[in-house]
Amino acid sequence: MDGGSRRGSRQGMDPIVRRVGFVTPGTEPEIPLQQVVLNGPGQSSPAPVIIPPRPIIASSTLSQEINSKTTAALKTVTVDALKNANIEASRVSEDLTLSSSFGGSDRSGGEAVSEVPASLSTVTTMVRQVSIASASVPAGGFAGPSVGLTPAPIAASVSEKAAIGGVKEKPKTTRAERKAIQEAQRAAKAAAQGGGKAPSVKGSVAGGGDEKKGGGKPAEPKTPKATPRREGSLAGSEKKPPVPAVRMQFDDKDRVAKATKKNIVEQTETKNRVELFRHLPQYVHGSQLPSAEAKFFRVQEPGHPHPAVYQVGLRYLTGDIVGANARCVAMLLAFAEMIRDYSTPPQKTLVRDLTAKINSHVQFLTTCRPHAVSMGNAIKLLKTRILKLPGHFTEAEAKKSLIEDIDKFIQEKIVFADKVIVDHAVEKIREGDVVLTHGHSHVVEKILEAAHARGKNFRVVVVDSRPRLEGKALLRRLLQKGLKCTYTHVNGLCYIMQEVDRVFLGAATVLANGVVVSRAGSAATAMVAHAYSVPVLICCETYKFHERVQLDSICSNELGNPEALVDVPGRKELTELQGWDKNDNLQLLNLTYDAMPADYVAMIITELGLIPPTSVPVILREYRKESNALELL
Amino acid sequence: MPGVASFSGRGGHGPMDFDAVVLAGGLSKQLYPLVSKELPKALLPVGNKPVLSYTLEMLEANNLTHPHVVVAGEEAASRVRAWISDAFQDRLTARVTAVPEDSGTAEALRAVAHQIRAKDFIVLSGDLVCDVALGAVAAAHCRSTAAATALLCSQPNSSFAAESKDKGKATTAPPVDYIGLTTDGSSLLFCASAADVEHELRIRRSILRAAGQMVLRTDLMDTHLYVFNRVVLDVLEAQPGIASVKRDLLPYLVRTQLSPLPSSVTGPSSGPDDAVSREDSSGSAAGPVASPSLVEALSHPARRGLAGAVRRCGVYLAGPDKFCNRLNSLQQYIEVNREVAGDAVHLTGFPVSSFNNVVHPSVEIGSKTTVGAQCVLGEGVRLGDKCSVKRSVLGKNCRIGANVKIINSVLMAGCVVEDGCHVQNSVVSAGGHLQERASLKDCYVGAAYTVGTGEEHRGESLAKKQ
């Protein structure tokens, strides 16, 4: 488990935001704001988080007291958001008190926050993020902005500990006790009907390492009575309107069976799945494509997707279309095609029928490959557009308007955004720089090409990782353009990093806490870069931002084809893994994405300018405002 | 020729945008004496069904219900037309086109080119018997946005080779195709049939350079099933010298896949800059202005096929478990019949008995007569006493006398075999008559031919004098 050490090291380090200090003209108002938030009034150097011993207060009174204070202080936080989540509130407020980022806000947090009115909005946003994102990871919302990152269950146990007696040392947990903890957590997870996000479990597991470095936070064996409370808060928070749809947990057999019954693509779950990743879908890769292809000409049968969508699905399946942008564009174009061929069946309304149709098509695409955040956002937008179609529109008008919307989305959010990102990013490449990138992000490729075209003299290091080796394609294209390149694999990273000046990385998504989800291997690259004080610049269009909060790469990820690990190109004699699926003791894990913590990220280059990862919530808020405004029209 | 960019012109949520062209041939010289004016190649029975029915059923199963069938020769065309309208009455609406008798396959394709409306079309030979999923081939074609995709299967070398051993090397080896593929087996880099190759293979250096590596194989068979983009129709028009699809068109496409298209055929796949310029022009048509090429530009798939190919020639390799064969020789005819009666019996759609053979309920079998596995006995067949039928296909209303042995043979409809005959590894066409104690081995008997009493034939082709 890498969680513990990672967090531990992060706590001791400055967020790189300040050290590098890129300031873009576009985001000037946000930078000082972030600094205020990060440094707190009158606290110039960020010390490692020191958790003060808690006074002995009964936990209920504590939470109520703090709850009332928080509510008073953060007036904009809706009452109902906190009402159902007392525990959350207490954890949240605790985080306020614990983390040095809110320096003076201990106990008298209200005054401190009101002293810094600018930060209030940010805090509000973050609190809202917390309540929106996931009830079980409230602390995650603060992972980006605040320095001290406290996994949720730890926070909970802190409050409990406080109630018991405020002992600081870590008590020895017996094996039985640990097992009891696990059982309790499993029960909680099951009770949340698979809806509870995995990090709640994960967080506590990873917390082990945290305790040693993070100032001796005590980990108390969870008493069973903690469980129902968490459940309650979970259930309560799920009722709130902006809660995102509960993601499918693939270790829940009944639900999986139910969901896969109607699938067009034949899916057989692989047997040897890694325990920790059982909640993610993984299928035997061989059988999907032939079964889907065999039905290629049967699209006229009811329940079959539109030909255009079908073809896109097949190309997802075969890996012909990869990359968040490409997948999103392909999907949108297919949907446009579908909408063009669409005619409302009699006795149905366009709005409802088309929405249902889009849903079933999305479902089909998801069976081909779990969809990316970028696609999710585009789908969301498309569906809102359908819902907000003016009632007086004829079918033809409605279709035309939708197709235009799709097109506008592609042009504005992707094509144009990429151009602007390239413009921004090229500025960041200086003469004589050594630029490092990992994998193959097409935006990064464009940036490097543009910089080269502008006559900048720089060198590129392409870092690649198995099994996809996508960097080779990038390398080929760059060499064709005449750039100077170095090619290495992830294991050569720390040697090559010494000479690197900038790291440019693409992203699959950027989450509200500033965590960047990108191709597996990117996080390691960013971490090494961070260790060598090399700024990491993430190139990402804002449409890929997501409100979700994620702390690790486990709760939400995609499992690639384990078969890809079996063969090593050029090493035919390495046959150890042949027939791996026959061996019950062997499990292969081929993760597709990983999550890099916000601390490693110096800047996110978006079409709206260069922003620090802490400003992602701001963008999200503004973006939502904008789309809300559009909806009102 | 209508332009390629017919995206917006497509109305309704139709089926997959595909047309099918069946090249049903005419009176094949290779299959003399089995084919005749009355029985064009397309109607030659395989497992008691005209061979064309396998093709058409495959198309029907894939919702391609409007195939174009091209037949060489007016008379043959009218027979095929009559048969299709009878057999596929409510299932297919095939449009049968006749072309002059000795025209090549490319000319046949030209004859129906103006009727092809879809963006892609499937061209398949009417004598193809296979159970490869057509959808998979088409899907592979669409996925790779190839100009042409060929279905290749491994060379059938099963029982035929084993049995021809005892005859020595008398029979010529099946024609070998030299096929060059990319290392991942997705693109065609080179193809030549053995007939055209003398001492050397001429491989384009530019293609080799673009591909990096090429795998040259001779164990693959071209099944004469191709999926073409309609760009190919323009090529056909621009190159009047192309006579045959397999021998001229495909090699031409493979050879020129790196060279730029003629300006008139620039399809919807152009640069992303074009996408922006089209925005202005097609504003009224409400078409998506971002072209599909944007996807290509944004995507960076694991390298498939040829770098920089303008018209990629793709390949779909049929799995080893798939059955695929063609009727292109007399020996092959027996072979296909046997396979259809045996391993590939599912293609016929006949119910298989517990003895692994297909016997029509109306068949009368005499006492002490055995019908072995892998046999197909048609309607109204009457077998006398003490007969033995092994691995053979007997057509409708065949009458077999007593003490007859039929092994590895095909008897078409209405044959009469009198007592004591031996038929081995032979074909007897419709209405053939074998008088008492006649013996045939490796023979091909034409329609309504009579083999006299006690005659013995070895490796002969027997037909009535015209």
Automatic annotation (TrEMBL), chain A:
GO CC terms, sorted: cytosol; eukaryotic translation initiation factor 2B complex
Family of the protein in this entry: Belongs to the eIF-2B alpha/beta/delta subunits family.
Natural source organism: Klebsormidium nitens
Keyword Protein biosynthesis among record annotations: yes
SUPFAM superfamilies to which the protein is assigned, alphabetical: NagB/RpiA/CoA transferase-like
Residue numbers spanned by region Disordered: 164-249
UniProt protein name: Translation initiation factor eIF2B subunit delta
Composition skew (Basic and acidic residues), residue ranges: 167-181, 209-241
InterPro entries per record: IF-2B-related (IPR000649), IF_2B-like_C (IPR042529), M1Pi_N (IPR027363), NagB/RpiA_transferase-like (IPR037171)
TrEMBL record, chain B:
Subunit structure, interactors included: Component of the translation initiation factor 2B (eIF2B) complex which is a heterodecamer of two sets of five different subunits: alpha, beta, gamma, delta and epsilon. Subunits alpha, beta and delta comprise a regulatory subcomplex and subunits epsilon and gamma comprise a catalytic subcomplex. Within the complex, the hexameric regulatory complex resides at the center, with the two heterodimeric catalytic subcomplexes bound on opposite sides.
UniProt GO molecular function: guanyl-nucleotide exchange factor activity; transferase activity; translation initiation factor activity
Entry keyword annotation includes Transferase: yes
EIF2B subunit epsilon/gamma LbH domain sequence ranges: 360-453
Protein family according to the UniProt entry: Belongs to the eIF-2B gamma/epsilon subunits family.
UniProt-recorded name of the protein: Translation initiation factor eIF2B subunit gamma
Main location: cytoplasm
Residues annotated as domain Nucleotidyl transferase: 20-155
Any one biological process term the GO annotation gives: cytoplasmic translational initiation
